[in-house]
Here is the input.
Amino acid sequence: MMNKAMITAFAGILTVSFAGISHAVAQESNLFSNVSLAAGGFASIAPVYEGSDKYRVSAFPIIYPTFGDGNGERSRLTFRGVDDVRYAVFRKGGFDLGPVVGYNFGRKESLSSDLTGLGDVDGGVVAGAFASYTINGFSVDAAATKQLSGLDDSGFLARFGAGYEAAVTERLTVNLYAGATYASDDYMDHMFSVTAAQNGASGLPVFDADAGIKNIDLKLSTSYQATEQLNLRANVGYSRLINDAADSPISITNDQFSGGLGFIYQF
Here is the structure.
């Protein structure tokens, strides 16, 4: 269960983020300058669930407004995944602050025979806040998110990492990012624990997963500005489950690979 200190810390992050948003709306006039619309699509390959050795391909469209992007300014939108879309509402120099939104699709028992007897983990809307700092291509960031629907005690995730982006040519940029994710007790219980009831239905040993760093990851992504409006993107990633996430009998393999292709068209 999430204790009072964790709830207070999470609420504090949200408060600081949305205070920054209010300040930005009131004082940073260029937030609503150069307003336009962007749309695109992405296809990705990833494990069918965290810890699986089986993979699936998924595809989805994306459409969003942009504020103040362009003219050499780095994009305010950062897409880390369906459950982690960040928008820098407040920007001061290299410092960004804003909300994180997304959707967690949960985990269906029908995804894999390895999940038989474990039941479904409901998905839901994800929200939180992030902060980052960028200088000369180097960046550090941290984010805290919580699933707000679908589960009563979903727990929370705290992600942090560092990256470096380099312009290979005028059109091509490459970004290397390394990070780690901390998961609360409630999150670990849903995703990696095996209860006595699940033991009887699945045959897996009873396991109580505790809070901690659940994975470290490395990602290489590229962005190619094919035309003034069209941007092409690709990425490959590797994640290594550690601690209780790695020890869980639900995890078939601790090595998790991913990849994706996509495009964004700026109207």
Notes: The chain has four helices and 13 strands. The first helix runs from residue 4 to 27.
